[in-house]
Write a structure and sequence with these properties.
Helices cover about 35% and strands about 15% of the residues. It is built from eleven helices and eight strands. A hairpin with a 2-residue loop joins strand 3 and strand 4. Helix 5 packs across helix 6.
Length: about 290
């Protein structure tokens, strides 16, 4: 089985619609794909309706959190999307995205970048506006060569010159809320230092003690020494280890299935979940 547990669609900051994403996942030879848009579940219904035969969908979201002044992303899988408190918290985060993005555009303008809000809004479309949309605008304007090049201290990285904070969840509260909604939590790309300051291992230990289920180890932003370090930490803390592409369509160079999760780990995630269940595809033939 080939299992990719971290992808994004146009419901947040990817370039594939949810329907396109599941079709592309099947064409890439995946058996299981998780749709984990930022702080939203809006893409799930479309993805389920278009799910090809032979592909299983794991519903989820990537929750924006902050601990001791450092941002972190928490992947939440197979939770009840209608659980009211978790839904309310996701909405609070989403509501802050537009003011935050406007602030970053203003800071870029102050730095001499000829960027306009209308360009960013056009790129975001119906998705939850975020830094990747601003980064795409910087690529269009020739300020940087790639979206990844915008995520540096010079521009949009955590603490960067144009960075602006947003409303984020306390990760301990997020873990509690996801568990109450029957879900499973995995810390996304925990040591992706190229994105900015990362959470110290001592904090990861506290999150594990609070009920964190796992950490994302195999990720494009983790080199091999970092992956080995994380595997050791996971063994020490009793955490599951996952691998994922963090696919954003054409917005990033990573391909679906570039990193994958061990089937035994996937089985344990589904065993722990009680809020929702993986959805087997029956919407049409698998692409050849």
């Amino acid at each position: 089985m080939r299992i990719d547990l971290h992808t994004h669609s146009t419901a947040s900051d990817g370039t594939d619609t949810p329907a396109e994403l599941v079709r592309n996942a099947a064409a890439a030879g995946l058996d299981v794909v998780a749709l984990t848009d930022h702080d939203t579940v809006r893409g799930h219904a479309e993805a389920i309706a278009a799910l090809p035969d032979g592909l299983t969908l794991v519903t989820g979201a990537e929750l924006s959190c902050r601990i001791d002044g450092v941002s972190l992303h928490l992947l939440a899988y197979l939770f009840d999307p209608d659980e009211p408190e978790l839904a309310r918290q996701r909405e609070l985060v989403r509501d802050d995205r537009v003011p935050r993005a406007r602030t970053m555009v203003g800071r870029l303008q102050a730095l001499g970048v000829p960027i306009e809000w209308e360009r960013v809004a056009r790129i975001a479309g119906e998705g939850s506006v975020g830094r990747p949309h601003i980064a795409t605008a910087l690529v269009e304007l020739g300020v940087v060569e790639t979206v990844s090049d915008a995520f540096t201290p010079e521009w949009l990285a955590n603490g960067g010159r144009a960075y602006a904070e947003k409303h984020e969840l306390d990760p301990f509260d997020a873990i509690r809320l996801v568990k109450a909604a029957g879900g499973v939590t995995v810390f996304a790309h925990p040591l992706a230092v190229k994105r900015g300051e990362v959470v110290p291992e001592s904090s990861i230990a506290k999150l594990a003690a609070a009920g964190l289920d796992g950490i994302e180890v195999d990720h494009m932003d983790h080199d091999e020494p970092t992956r080995a370090r994380l595997r050791g930490l996971a063994r020490e803390l009793g955490l599951l280890t996952t691998g994922s592409s963090d696919y954003h369509g054409t917005r990033k160079t990573v391909a679906l299935g570039e990193c994958t999760t061990d089937p035994e780990i996937y089985g344990e995630i589904t065993r722990r979940a009680t809020g929702a269940f993986p959805v087997p595809g029956a919407g049409g033939p698998r692409p050849v």
